[in-house]
Amino acid sequence: MNAHRHQFSLLPRSRSTKIVATLGPASGTAEQIEALFRSGADCFRLNFSHGTVVEHRARVEAIRHVEAQYDQPIAIIADLQGPKLRIGRFGAGTIGLQAGQPFRLDTDPALGDRARVQLPHPELFKALTLGSDILLDDGRVRLQVTGQGTGYLETTVISGRSLSDHKGVNVPGVVLPLAAMTAKDRVDLAAALSFGVDWIAVSFVQRPEDVVEAQQLIGSRAALIVKLEKPQALEHLDALIALADGVMVARGDLGVELPPEEVPVAQRRIVAAVRRAGKPVIVATQMLESMISAPTPTRAEASDVATAVYEGADAVMLSAETAAGAYPVEAVEIMNRIAGRVERDPFYRRSINTESLPPEPNMSDAITAAANQVARTIGAVAIATFTTSGSTTMRASRERPAMPILCLTASAETARRLTLSYGVRSIVTPDIHSFSQMVERAGRMARSTGIAHAGDRLVVTAGVPFGTPGSTNTLRIAIVE
Predict the structure, then answer these.
(1) Residue 426 in contact with residue 451, Cβ under 8 Å?
(2) Which CATH superfamily is domain 94-170 in?
(3) In angstroms, rounded to a whole number, what is the distance separating the alpha carbons of residues 152 and 448?
């Protein structure tokens, strides 16, 4: 990105909701990343549960190459694995199960059979009690604890017909004595920060304390996303949102431990709460799952994506669809089309406006709320925000305006982070020093990006003294020349 260029090549996006694409074997090359970007991906996720540090570094370099080629900021999320609970291995690789049969989990490393298998997590044995449920293989197998002793649990199979090596373990309704950050996560975090990623996503968050270590290690080098995938985290929702810079609704794991009917309710609650806080919220997991192997989604999946857009999420995310699927570009294209179509629905705009949030009682929020109202009243084509830290632009995004938000900042880091926020289109440009420069720059940038044409109106917000973080106190109406 070049702060001194005057012509830009912002790709046209007919939507305000952003798309996050996960990279992997199906999408790791520079050519594939460019194709995903051109198809509609605004942000890329690196899943540190898979791949090597060398592979992730190469993907970061490829993203930055695309960013330079198009002179358009792109956000990168490094998603840390967190503690993964898994059973051991079976002698035959797979066993059959029958409802009602006894099954033992223990710390013995010997290969398992139809009667037992290793559970190499001794901390679980202390956390569980008689009657506790244990879910294996994303809930496909359900066990209930019937007895326990030192280093073992006796269980009864409630449901499930087969089980194979290294399947995951979930324990609904139990706060586990596990830190969210593992030794692997610390190594991965250090690597991701050295690559210059923009966001760090922390997994397995159960309590506010789980976020503190990551915050201390990250400092100001990246922004922090709390992944809500444990039902226990919902008990501390407001505290976790306050600690985070952004939130991801990780419905895969959340859906394993919550009853299916509770997941949509939790999603809506989380999205609304994060919106109120004025921070970006991502709805993730299984959005177009069938496109891992099919060129088109199911109608239910299309409706699922649409629901997240109607709820006002900042971003919707593709996981295995783009990381390992057979149709990664098509998945982005279809998500792009769904989001764009929903946002053109008159009901969508009425719904978003109905759920508009009252401004906080401070000058910055008052100015930003007024900017949205003025922009609607005069038919402005965009709201231009001059920002240093990003707070001015995030306030504008919280209002969910009907027109694009043009973020003008001298900080490449700020520009990249804000590409995750609803409606924001970022440009890196030198600081301004006067009102006349502010109006001229906003008009010139809006015109050069194709957002505005001569004679169009812009609403411009900034903080005075210029370049002072968090001081939004000025609103101007500008006519593009």
Answers:
(1) no
(2) PK beta-barrel domain-like (2.40.33.10)
(3) 67
126 is catalytic: no
The one catalytic residue in 17, 22, 285, 449 is 285
Q: Which residue in the list 64, 86, 89, 276 is annotated as catalytic?
A: 86
Structure tokens that stand for 266 in this block: 């939790």
Which member of 15, 18, 45, 417 is catalytic?
A: 45
- Position 137 pLDDT exceeds 80: yes
- Give the closest residue to 237 by CA, choosing from 271, 203, 201: 271
Right CATH for 363-479 from 2.102.10.10, 3.40.1380.20, 3.30.559.10, 3.50.30.60: 3.40.1380.20
Tell whether the model's pLDDT for residue 282 goes beyond 50. Answer: yes
175/170 Cα distance (integer angstroms):
11
Q: Is 285 a catalytic residue?
A: yes
- Give per-residue pLDDT as tens, 41-79: 999 999 999 999 999 999 999 999 999 999 999 999 999
- What are the tens digits of pLDDT across the range 94-134? 999 999 999 999 999 999 999 999 999 888 888 899 999 99
**Residue 306 Cα distances to 149, 198, 271, 346, angstroms:** 49, 27, 14, 14
Between CA 455 and CA 303 the distance in angstroms is 39
CATH number of 18-83+180-348: 3.20.20.60
- Asked about 227 being catalytic, the answer comes back as yes
Domain map (residue ranges) of the chain: 18-83+180-348, 94-170, 363-479
**Three-state DSSP class for 418?**
helix
Average pLDDT over residues 167-196: 93
Active site residue 45: yes
From the number of C-beta atoms within 10 Å of its C-beta (0-12, 13-18, 19+), residue 322 rates as buried
